[in-house]
Every structure is written in C-alpha cells, then in structure tokens.
Amino acid sequence: MQNNRKADSIRRYIKSQFDLPDDQIESMIPLFLATLAEYLTTLDQACAANDPAELGRVGHTIKGALLNLGLHQAAEIALTIEQRGKAADHAADYQALAAELRDTLAGYLD
Fold first, then answer.
1. Higher confidence at residue 58 or residue 32?
2. Which of 3, 21, 82, 84 could disulfide-link to 92, CB 3.0 to 4.6 Å?
3. What is the pLDDT of residue 4?
4. How far is CA 45 from CA 39, 67, 70, in A?
C-alpha cells in the first residue's frame, strides 16, 4: 500500500480503535482495501441490475467495512444506499450514489 496521507489516516484509526501492532496493521490494510474493492464491484453489479434489495444488502456490507477503516464520510453514502435499497426505492439514483462513493474513496483504492 502506498504511504500517503489517506492510508496514514486508516493506519491511525485502526491503531486507535484496535491497538494492534504496526506490522499487523500493515498486513491487514491491503486485505481490507482489496475486499472493499470487491464490494464496490458487487455494488456496480447491483446497480446495473437495478436490484434495490441487493443494493440494500451491499450498501450495508460496504458501510460496515468503511466504518472499520474509519472512513465515516464514505460510510454515510453507503448508509444512504443501504436505506434506499432496503426501502425498495426504485426512484433512487444508485448509479450516482455509487459514483459519489467511488469519488469519496479516490486515493484509497488506487
């Protein structure tokens, strides 16, 4: 993982929340981010299928992953996807929400 300010914020958050050794944090972060990237692919597939129930489920999963990394702003977007999906909101612009989420995560998944 790149040594950048964004990655450092995740490191600090995990250290403060879980008090893990630095080497363990370093080994975990790439796995967390790879999993997050997979979740975003699943989100894109649910958007393409226009499946609110699946969007609600995936939004919930992504929200949890983001909160574990201390990415609260992005988690708010995932929460919106979750809530609208679980409410079977067919009028919601899930594509726009997914794009906003990806923009918010720019630099973390590069």
1. 58
2. 84
3. 67
4. 10, 22, 25
Confidence at residue 75, expressed as pLDDT on a 0 to 100 scale: 98
Distance CA 40, CA 57 (A): 12
Read off the pLDDT band of 67 (50, 70, 90): very high
Encoding tokens for residue 45?
A: 């597939």
Residue 14 has pLDDT above 70, yes or no: yes
Closest C-alpha among 90, 91, 78 to residue 43 = 78
Query: What angle in degrees, to the nearest 10, is found between the helix axes of 5-18 and 22-49?
Result: 110
Q: Distance between CA 22 and CA 12 in Å, rounded?
A: 10
Enumerate the domain spans of the chain. 5-104
> Per residue in 20-40, is it b (16+ CB within 10 Å) or e — as a string?
eeeeebeebbeebbeebeebb
